[in-house]
Every structure is written in C-alpha cells, then in structure tokens.
Amino acid sequence: MGSSRKQLGHHLVVDLTPMIDVVFQLIIFFMLTSHLGDLRRTEIDLPRQPGQEQQDGEDAAMIIDIDQAGNYFVESIQVDLNEIHRIAAAGIAKEDITSSFDVLIRPDRFAPAEYLDRLLNKLSGVGVSHWKLGTRASGGAG
Amino acid sequence: MGLKRSQRSAKRSSHLGVLPLTSMIDVVFLLLVYFLVTSSFAQPERDLPSSVQTDGGGVRSSELQPQIVVIELQGSEAVYRVGSNRVLTQDGLTQLLRSLPKAPGIAVKAQREVPIRFIAVAMQASQDAGFTRRSYVPTDR
Q: Cα–Cα distance between A134 and B45 in angstroms, integer?
C-alpha cells in the first residue's frame, strides 16, 4: 500500500524538458520547410506598384534579383550573366515547353534600366519570352 | 472512508501543483512574440507580367505594330512619350493609354539610365489601362 502510493507520487512529477525540445525541433522543421520559397529571395527594395497578386502554387521557375549596383542573384547566390544563361538554358531544356518557363525578376527600384536590359537580352537569347517584374504593394510613386 | 478519500485527493492535487509549467509558458511567449514581430515585417510581394520583345524582330510586318511607350529621363524625373504625346505622371500615362486601341498591344522601352521604378510605372499604367498584350523592349547592349 505504501509503495504504490510512492509510485503514484513519482509518476505525477512530469518532466516537460524533452517535450519542449521536441516542440522546438518541430517548429524549426516547419519554419524551414514552409519558407523555402522566401530563402530564394534576397532583401531588395522593389518598385512600389500594386501589380497583381502572386498566385499560390505558381512559383516562378527562376527568380533573379538585381541590386542597385547591378549584381545579379539567383537563389540568393551572386551569379554573372553567363551563369544565368546556363541555368536558364538548363531549365528550359528540362521543362521542354519554352512558354512555361516563368522568370520572376526582382530589381532594386533605383537600379538603372541597363541592368534589366542586359539580363533580358541574355534570357531572350536562350528562348525566354515571358517574365514578371516583382513589385511591392505598399507605398506609391514607383 | 470519506475522510480517507478526501485526504488522497488533496495529496493528488498537491502533486499536480508541482508541474513545472514556467519554462513551457516562457517558450510559448517567446514564440508568440517571434511570430508577431516577423509577420508584421514581411510585406507581400506582387508582380507585373510582360513578354520580352527584342528590337530586331518578333513582330512580323503583317501583324499590328504595338504602340510604344518610351521612357526618358529629365533631371531625376521620367518623361513618358507615346508618339507625339509626353506625360510626366502615372495617372496621366494611364489616362493617355486608356484612349488608345488595345488590339495592337503595348511595348515599353526605356533609356539605359532610367531607374527601373519608372519602367514599373509604365507597366502598371498599361495594365490599368486595359492592355492584355504587354511587352518590354530591352535596348541592345
């Protein structure tokens, strides 16, 4: 009788430390997997225009960022135009249908047009015919 | 019998009171603060779809030629030129484009030094004016 009461007492002291560990692991896992799309983008001061809503599940095949100094980034990694050409060509070859290869360009709003033009000339040389200009809805005047 | 039962339940409740919930509450609060802060800073992004049209070709002579918006820089501000018309504001450009026929489509072209935000203005104006065939013409290197 006395020993069973002692056992009951031991069971009631619940140690929550492993439970918190597990909760943290799960949170880290879900945060990383659900925001993988965001990791493909660098922090860019995009043009301020309402544009149109980006469709869920219609992720661009390639996201290219242009900073104010004219550096190009694909998946947050700095690349040159030749590398972009190679990646786009490989993507188009994989997709098989040129029109379905969707390119999202996220330029700094103050970057000169020549950086965009150079990029689009390179992409059109591979066969890219459609692109999207990334914008931010808030604010105004470009 | 009744006394024994009440003693047992009192003991059980005192055991339950020992549950170390403080750390759990700390964690929950930290997570709550984290998600509140990050969600308020993450601004949704939008886009302006367009096609690429090279200067050399793409449009056959038998097809209707798209109307062209040329963006030039005047000091630090942009001037949008459509044929002989020149406008300085996004609203003015939208109004001007609304009056044009939509079937031929619209092409946007910018001088090399024009900031990209003015290209976004022209593309937004052509979308707001109702053009479905929109293209951008990059200048040759």
A: 7
Residue B85 bridge partners (DSSP): B82
pLDDT digits (tens, 9 = 90+) for B42-54: 567 888 888 887 7
pTM for the model stands at: 0.72
CB-based contact, A124 to chain B, within 8 Å? yes
Is B132 within 8 Å of B103 (Cβ atoms)?
no
Could B124 and A51 be called an inter-chain contact, meaning their C-beta atoms sit closer than 8 Å?
Answer: yes
**Residues B86 and B119 occupy one common structural domain:** yes
B108 interfacial to chain A (CB closer than 8 Å):
no
B125 and B78 in a common domain: yes
Answer yes or no: is the ipTM higher than 0.85. no
How does residue A71 score in pLDDT terms, banded at 50, 70 and 90?
very high
Q: Of the CATH numbers 3.90.1300.10, 3.30.70.20, 3.40.50.300, 3.30.420.270, which one belongs to the domain with range A40-133?
A: 3.30.420.270
